[in-house]
Structures
1.
Amino acid sequence: MTAATIIGAGVAGLCVARALLDRGADVVLVDRHTDAGPHACSWWAGGMLAPFCEGESAEEPVVRLGCEAADWWEAKTSAVKRRGSLVVSLARDTSDLARFARRTTGFRHVNGPEISNLEPDLADRFAKGLFFESEAHLAPRLALAQLRASVLADGGAFVQEDADPDEYAQRGLTIDCRGFQAKDKLHDLRGVKGEMLVLSCPDVTLTRPIRLLHPRLPLYIVPRGDCIFMLGATMVEGHAGKHVTARALLELLSAAYALNPAFGEAEVLEIGVDSRPAFPDNLPRIRRDGNLIRANGLFRHGFLLAPAVARMVADLIFDNKTPEVMGETAA
Amino acid sequence: MHDFYGTTLANGFMLGTAQYPSPAILANAFKRSGASVATVSLRRESGQDRAGQDFWQLIKDLGVHILPNTAGCHSVKEAVTTAHMAREVFDTKWIKLEVIGEEDTLQPDVFGLVEAARILSEDGFQVFPYTTEDLVVADRLLHAGCEVLMPWGAPIGSGLGLNNIFGLRAMRAHFPDVPLVIDAGLGLPSQATAAIEMGFDAVLLNTAVAKAGDPAAMAEAFATAIKAGQLARAADPMEPRDMAAPSTPVIGKAFLV
C-alpha cells in the first residue's frame, strides 16, 4: 500500500491528503501547528470559487482548473454556496466594467433592477453589473475543519511537528505543501502580501460575493452568513510583516463604504495579513525529486486550485502521470 | 536623443513594473519591447522591512537600467526617505521623483517637488522629476539641480494621451538642451509616436502596457511606435501647408485655375 507524509496542513496539504486517501493511500499530515489558524494563508482566504472572474487577470489554466473546485468542495464539505458572483463598478468607473467583461466569460450583463433583484441591499446603487451565475463560494474555515475531520475519520493521522520535508523524504514518500514556508527550498517562490478584514454588519445582507471594480482599489466582499463579511484583499509584492498597514485599512474600508454606506457602522472583528506563495507566472507548480514532491505556488487561488493540484499529485504518485503544472526545474 | 546624466539609452522607452498580471508577464513585456529603463516603486510594491526583495531581484534580473521612483509619496520627507532607500536597494543615483499633491488627479505638488529635488540633488542624486508642463516650475527644477524633466502627458493611469499639446511644445522649445520625457497619461502607441515626433527624448508609461489584455504585445507596440517617432524626427518631416501640392505632374492635363 502507498504511504505518504504530507507536510503542511493548509488548504493544499489537506486537499492532497484527501485525494491520496481517496486513492487508497495511508496518509500522515504533519504541521507545525495543532490546528488551522491565522498562521496559514487558507485561514484568510476569501473563499471565492470564481474561476471566470479570476480569468480577468489570471492565465488560462486558472480558469480551466478552477472549474473543478466547486464540485470538489461540495462533494467533500457542506461549506459551499452556489449563488454566483456579482461584479459592479461605481458610475465613474464603468470603463473598468467594460474591460472586465471583455476579458472574462461565463457571465451575463445585469442592469440596475436586476442587481436589486439579486442583492436588494445594493438597490439603486449600481446601474450595470456582470453576473457570473455558475460561480460559487465557500466558508474557508468551515471547509478546512470539515476536510481535516474527514481525513482523520478515514484513517489519516496527524502529527504536530516543525518538520523538514527532506528528512522525511529519506524515509518515504513525502509531499511538501508548506506554502511560503518552503521558500528556502524553492528559490523562485516569492511572497505576495495580502491584507483583509472580517466585519460584522447587521445592516447589510448580501448572499453572494461582490466584486467592486476600481482602478486603484479593487475590492471583494464575501458574505459568511450571520451578518459576517470577509473584505479583501490587497496585493503587495513582498512577503508580509506581522501587521496590516494603515493604507490597506483605509483602502479596504473606503471601498466597502462605497459599496454600501451602511458598512460605515460595521464592527471590525478581525484584521488579517498573510504571504501568498507565488511563482513568477503566478501559476502553481508540482516538482518531484525522488521521494519528495513539492506542491506550491497557489498564489491567491488556494481553494480554487488546490483540488486540481491534489488530483495531479495523486495522478503523479499512482499513475506516474506528469502533471500539467510540473515544475521545469527539479525540486 | 539627449543622454540622461551621462547615460546614453538604446531607445526612448521607459517602462513601469507595477500592476502586471504576473512577474513572468512583466519580464516578457521587457523582453519583447527592449525597453531600456525599468521604473520601480519602492513604496507601493514592497511595504516595510525590505519585504519586496524577491520582486526587486526580478526587476534587477531584467538587465535594464533601473529608475526607482517615489510613487505614492505625498510629502517631501516621505519622498526623500524613499529615495535614500532606493539608492541603497538598487545601487543607483537615479531617482524618479514624485511628490503627489492631489489624490484624485495624482497631480504633482510642484512646490514640494522643487524642494525635494534640491535636497536630493545636493545629496548626489540624479533626479528625474515628475512635473507638469509649467515652464516656471521647470526652470525652478533645473535650478534645483535637475538635468532631466519629466512632464506629464495626462494624469497618471488616465490613458488620455498628450493633454496640452501647446504647453508641451512650448516646453520643448524653451529647453532645447534638456532631456525631456513624457511621463504618465499615455494610453496608446500613437500617442507615444506623437510625443517623440514633437521632439521629446523618451516616454515613460506603465498602466497602458500592464493593464492591456496582452501586456507583452502592447509593450512591443509601444516600442515600435517610439521607433517610428524617432525615425520620423530624424528624417526631417515636411512642413504642413494650407494648399494642396500635387505629387504627380499636372502639365499636359486639362485643369482649371
2.
Amino acid sequence: MRNLEFAHIWVLLGVPIVLSLLYFRYYLRVRQYSSFVPFSSFQLIPNSQKQHLNFLLKLLPVGYMVGLSLFLVALARPQKHESKIHKNVEGIDIMITLDISDSMLIEDMKPLNRLEAAKQTIIDFVKGREHDRIGIVIFAGEAFTLVPLTLDYDLIQNRVAELTTAKDARIKDGTALGVALANAAARLKDSTAKTRVIIFLTDGENNSGTIDPETGLEIAKGYGLRIYSIGLGRSGPTRIPIYSKDVFGNKVKHYQPFVSTVNEPLLKRMADETGGKFFSAYDEKVLHQVFEEINRLEKSKIEVHHYTKIDELYMYPLRYGLMLLFLTLFVDFILLRRFPVW
Amino acid sequence: MSQNAVSVEILRKIRHIEIAIRKKVNQIFQGEYRASFKGQGMAFADFREYVPGDDVRRISWIVSARTGKTYVKQFEEERELSVVVLLDVSGSMNFGTGFMTKKDVAVYLGATLAMSAIKNRDLVGLLLFSETTDYWLPPKKGRNQLMRLIRDMVVISGRGRQTRLSAALTFLNKVLKKKSLIFIISDLIAMGEYQNDLSHLTRKHELNVFLVEDGMERELGKQMGWIGLQDLETQDVRWVQFSDYELKKKYASHVEHQKGEAIKVFRSYGVDVVRVPVGPDWDRVLMQFFKKRRA
C-alpha cells in the first residue's frame, strides 16, 4: 500500500522485543524437559500417535508472536495518507440549437454541405468540453429537443452524427427561429447552472412557427440566457440540391436556384441583447473558429482544493491480531489442554 | 561411583531396607530359600588316608585295594551356592506411578534374595547393569557383603541410561566360573538383543527372572488429555493423548505383546519369569515364586 505511515513508529521497536521474549519462552526452553512426566520407555507406546499436536504446538508460539506483533503494529497507528485534489467544477449548461431546414443542404461548405459541416463542428466542440451539460435542439418548421441537457457526450455525438434534414426527418420544413429559441430556453430555464448558454445556428429567416423570434428573444433574456448566434453560409443567390427518385427508383440529385438569406440583424441583436456574440460563418473553417472562440469564451470555473485525507488503519491489525490471539489461546488452553503447559 | 560419599540419608535408607526385609527373611524366606535352592549335596573332592575315628562307610575300597593302604573318600559340601543378583539400573527402572518406583521394588527383591542367601551361608554377588555393566561385586559370604550389596544397589543409579542385557550376560559368562544361581531383576523394557548370551549363560548357570512392572505398564491411566512424556532412557520427549480410546486399547496390547515376547525368549531357555507388580505386594509374589520352585 502506498502512502502508508505510522504515527508512532517507535512503537514498532517493541516487535523485536516481543518476538525475542517469546523466542526465549518457547524455543530455548525446549531443551529443558524437567517438567515433563517421566515415562519408562517410548518403546511401550504404539507408534500410531497423531502428529498434528506436535505441529500445532510448534505453531502456537508463532500465533502468539504474530498476534502480539499485530497489536504493536496497531499501537503504532498506521495511517494511509491520501493527498486528494478536489476539483470543484462549476459546469455551464449549453443548448446547441441547430437549423436542419432544407437550405442546410446547400453545398457551400465542406465536407458536403452546411449541415454536415455544422454536425462535424458540433461534435468537435462537444469533444472539447468537460463538466458542461450540453443539449441539442433541432428545428426547421418546428423545433424539438434532440438531446436534453446531459453529460453523456457520447450520446450527444451519436445523435448529432445521425442527424438529417427536415425532409428526411419528416419535420415540417421551414425555419422557425422563435420556436427553436423558446424550446432551447425552456430546456435551460430550470437549470441551476450559473452560466446558461444557447448556441444558435441557422442559415435562414424566420418563416414559420407559432412563436415570434422577438418573443423567443424576450424569453431568453428573461431567463438570463446568453446567446451565441451563428449565421451559416453566404447570403445571396446559390443553388439548393433536390433529391428525388427517378422512374427506376434511383436517387437522383439536381439543383434548383435558391436565394439564401440570413437574418443577420436579428441574430446580431439576439447576441448583443443577451451578452453573447454574433458570428457569420461563411465556410467550415470560419465555423470551426467560431466554435473555438465560444469554447474559449465559455470556460467553466474550476476551483482546486488540495488536502490530505488521513485514514486510520489501526483497526485492521488490531482486529486480526485479536482474532489470532484468541484463536491461539483457544487452541492453547482449550483444544490442546495439556500437561505440562508448554 | 564413589564409595565413600554415602550420605546419612542413604545410610538410613539402607538400614530401613535391611530392617524391612530382615523380619521377612528370618520368618519366611530363609527357610523357603533353603528349601527351594538345595545344593547338590555332597560332592567328591579327594582321597585321604584313614585315621581312626573316620566313618568306615567312607572308606574307598577300590583305592584301598589298589594301594594297600586304607583310604577314605573326602567330600566337600556343595551346599555353598554362589548367588548373583543381576539388577537393572537403567533409566526406565526409575519409573513408578505409585509410592514406589520399579527400582525400589527391585532393590527390595534383590536385598531379600541376598539376605536369604547370606543367612544360608551362600556367596552373594551383585552386578548392576544398564548400557554397560555398571558395577560388579564378586560373590562373597557374610553380613558385610550383604550390607555393601544393599548400599550399592541403593546408591548406584543408571538414570538416563538405556538397557543392554547382552552386555551384562556376556560379562557374567566371563566372570562366573562356578555354577551360579543368577537372579535377573529388570523391567524387560527395551533390552536390545540378548538371545545368544542368554543361551550361553543358561548352559552353565541357573537363571531366574523377576519382571518388575508398574501398573501403567499394563494399561494407560485415566483420561487425562495430552501429557508430555519424557523417555527415562533416551531422554526424548513426546506428547501422548491419554484420552485417546484407540491408543489406550492399542497400548495395552502393545505392552503385553512386548513383554510376552521377552518372556517367551526366556522360557525357551528354560528360564522362569516372575512378574512382580510395583507395590507393597512384591513379597507375596516372591513367596509364590519359592512355593512354585519347591513343587
